[in-house]
Design a protein that fits this description.
The structure is a homodimer of 109-residue chains. Chain A has 109 residues and is of the alpha+beta class. The first copy, chain A, has five helices and three strands; from the N terminus they run H-H-E-H-H-E-E-H. The first copy, chain A, has a three-stranded antiparallel beta sheet with strand order 1-3-2. In chain A, strand 2 and strand 3 form a beta hairpin. In chain A, 22% of the residues are buried. At the A-B interface, helix 1, helix 2 and helix 5 of A face helix 1, helix 2 and helix 5 of B. The first copy, chain A, binds a DNA duplex (30 and 30 nucleotides) through helix 3 and helix 4.
DNA sequence: TCAATACTTAGCCAATTGGAAAACTATCTT
DNA sequence: AAGATAGTTTTCCAATTGGCTAAGTATTGA
């Protein structure tokens, strides 16, 4: 909730962590299941989960000896919001490019 | 263009670099002007510009002794695309939360 | 109760990162 | 031609990061 974009972007910069997020947008899952998809030692993997949890992208709670992890959608929304704040401007620039490309096509034929 | 999300996200994880991107979605600008807004040595700042350029978020060319920098909108589009690929799923989860919040409100009154 | 399961904690390490200072090159401006 | 401007290159440094192994704790199943 209190997360800034720095930690959100840097959390998502790691492919392992991004894969975990992609897994969790589909369903919550226990640490063991998440870990199975990644060829690294468990303690290493747990560090990634901890990073995700510290940024607020993810939450978890223990059920017996299993830790269930689920996504925190509001955090992804923050990145979406940042993009939205600038989207209008960069899309203008994209449009300009595609118009230019169109013009060049027409000139060629 | 050939950029992966790893480098895009990690480039945007730094507040200096994000500020430069925000500046450049408005207008292209010379290095000196960009640097003026940031309290750090020029060589340090230039490293950030180089990172942005290597990820493809930005391009530059020299005009005399001045280097002009401009944004490469297609790169931001890549991040937007990644979010879009998952947006449907996490918005479903957000909806579920807000419905739950609604229910709790109604129960309270 | 005892072994297996599912994490957890603690330390260690190499590579990367964000910062600095110093010295250098290339372009104007006068 | 000389000085000022605008970057550039080089070298150094401390902190962070992503990975490992080894050893520990807490639950569960037989």
């Amino acid at each position: 909730m209190t997360n800034n974009l720095n930690t959100l972007f840097s959390a998502l910069a790691d492919p392992t962590r991004r894969a975990v997020v992609e897994h969790l947008v589909q369903n919550p899952a226990p640490v063991g299941e998440l870990h199975a998809a990644h060829d690294m030692a468990l303690p290493t993997f747990l560090k990634h989960i901890k990073v995700l949890e510290e940024t607020g992208l993810v939450r978890s709670h223990k059920l017996g000896r299993v830790r269930m992890v689920h996504i925190e959608p509001a955090s992804l929304q923050q990145i979406d919001d940042w993009l939205t704040r600038h989207r209008a401007l960069w899309e203008t620039r994209l449009d300009r490019l595609s118009r230019l490309a169109n013009d060049m096509d027409r000139t060629k034929s």
